[in-house]
Amino acid sequence: MKKKLLALSLCLIGWLVSGAQDVIIKITKGDRTRIAVPELRGAGQAQSFMNVLNQTLWSDLASSGLFDLAPKSLYPLLNPQRPEDLRRPADKPDPNLRGLWLRDWADPPVSANYLVFGYAGTQADQLVLFGWLYNTGLPEPSQAQVFGKTYLGSLDEAGARRVAHEFAADILKQFGGVSLAGSKIYFVSERRPGVKEIWVMDPDGSNQKQLTHYNSVSTMPAVSPDGTRLAFTTYARGNPIIMLHSLETGRRLPFLNPVSSMVGTPSFTPDGQRLVFSASVDGWPQIHIANIDGRGLRRLSFVRAIEVEPKVNPKTGAEIVFVSGRGGPHQIYRMNMEGGDVRRLTDGEGYASNPSWHPDGQHIAFAWTRGYAPGNFNIFIMDVATGRFDQLTHGTGRNENPSWAPDGRHIAFCSTRSGTPQIYTMLADGTQVRQLTTEGRNTMPVWAKGLN
Questions:
Q1: What is the CATH T-level fold of the domain 2-28+182-449, as seen in this structure?
Q2: pTM for this one?
């Protein structure tokens, strides 16, 4: 019976109750900078890839949460492709050339604070993008340029996406943002009945690729902080064990699993040199820590209850949040790296699970049934120090497995709002929800650093 309980907990990942105060905090959206992003044009062979380039650039900027993109329906008929196209304020206005003065973009109806423009061509069988960002509040073109840069990529759709991502990343840097183009979302996908494998995709849902091929159930992925190693739980050999793969070579790496134990829910320490995970002791899954090869095993929890989903604070490396049934219904707790100073974070109303640390080490996202029937999870975030929380999703399907993006502004999660479980992303204020997957059943996203 205990083994069945453990297997169930490893598959479904503990149900938890939120021990926060009854204080709801709202994440304010803040003032988003309004920018105009007219279509970039291409010459020669580059024309074939402009749709991909423009869509990628728009998507990266729109999904960043930093900008209010002015609707294209408001744009003037003309837009500059290069700085020399811009007219000086002293030039006599010409209605037929509207769009070539910066004030045409600053004034209503566009009302943009900044203008993005550029063009693409080819050079030595490469795609070349010339991109500029201008401040429309400075009508003199010679003073308004924020930056201009040239980008090179392969002459194909992948190259078009790459140069667009790089251009968007440079724009984001000007506003204190971080590009997610180099990050990846790892997830569990069931595309044949009963067979679950680990997959990876770009943050916009493109370039989906299968990573494991065990023809079994592989689940609960975790990625090392440097993006080079993948840990996950698999049933390929019967009872659940942890496997470790190199994301650079695709090869399996050695990991010594505890003997005669059911093991799962792995997570890396911030230095990438150790794993925390759950391993059964007398039938009860307990929190353990070991070196990256599985040696040096040490037990951290000692209760006759389910203890799963440990996550180490990515900033301090000094505390672990985890799911426990020690008080009855599963709840979220925290403890130090020695297993001491255990405190409950959630308050006992409903069930909670799937804790995920914000990169700042001060907040967690998690799934919670608070205010809903058992099993109807929604995504919440919590300030760990104060216990204050905010609800991000509101009863549309079952929403679980939140994972913070490296920029700390986005969250990936799993939801059944479309009928089957799929992967979505949203801003950390609950807005701009985007569905990334459609094929099969997709769960347990982990947003992590990608390989360089």
A1: Neuraminidase (2.120.10)
A2: 0.87
